[in-house]
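Dock S-adenosyl-L-homocysteine; give full complex structure.
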Amino acid sequence: MYNDEGIVMLQLYAQHITTMNNENITTIHEFDFNLICEFFLHLERQGPGSPEVTRKALSFIDNLTAKSLIADIGCGTGGQTMTLATHAPGNITGFDLFPEFINLFNANAAKLNLQDRVKGVVRSMDDLPFGDEELDLIWSEGAIYNIGFERGLNEWRKFLKTGGYIAVSESSWFTEKRPSEIENYCMPHFPEMDTISNKVAIIEKAGYIPVATFILPVTCWTDHYFTPMIKVQEMFLNQHKGNKAVEKFVELQRYDAEIYRKYNEFYGYVFYIGKKI
Ligand code: SAH
């Protein structure tokens, strides 16, 4: 049912807006990009998470001052960035590939009167505009998989000052073994998906002290991600009546939510916080 190439590609883009290291990118029709952007613009977040979780991750970080420089990579429309900015000092730059997300990000910052220290920039995460040792903190919720977990940790490290922090959330396995249905569903999209202990080993190998890891509560997926989507899905289906791509897109999102409900003991998002040594 889900192995038609067009559907799989939409699935990749719809659920996770994967854009890098994917040869299929060149075959995606422009309309599909617009469609996906349009959909996610209606949502506060483009991935699982919550203000409480952002604050919890922030509680492990102790080096910030008004002069700190922070990058939020794969920031989307800035749901987590605004939480970060209201609870931490310093200047934050959000980076995302989609101009529409960045426009809304900057409008959101202005609404909260944060525009002087929170700015969104259209830029790819593999081409960040920083020199060595400039940043105090790198933040990235639900986005590092686009460059690759290991590659992102390695390549972004040089931008951090010694003693600086990296905080990322990433899909992970909670158990050593899991049912094949869920393994087969996730692995093609997230080839680096691994257990928490293996992820921590990668953090250590990349030159960080693993300061903390914690599993995001189920409500980060349900209340903060899947549930707000329901209204937007209905609106979207109404607006694009008879559009097969839209119907598939929504069908896949619903399937994604169903899979999560069935298997959330086995996988989910984990926050990883590391300190550069
Ligand atoms: N951090 C946000 C968005 C997560 S979704 C949240 O938690 O709500 C992943 C985000 O990564 C999307 O906004 C997507 O547009 C962005 N993205 C994908 N590839 C990217 C790239 N190469 N460079 C920068 N951002 C990218």
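Observed: The chain has one domain: 1-277.
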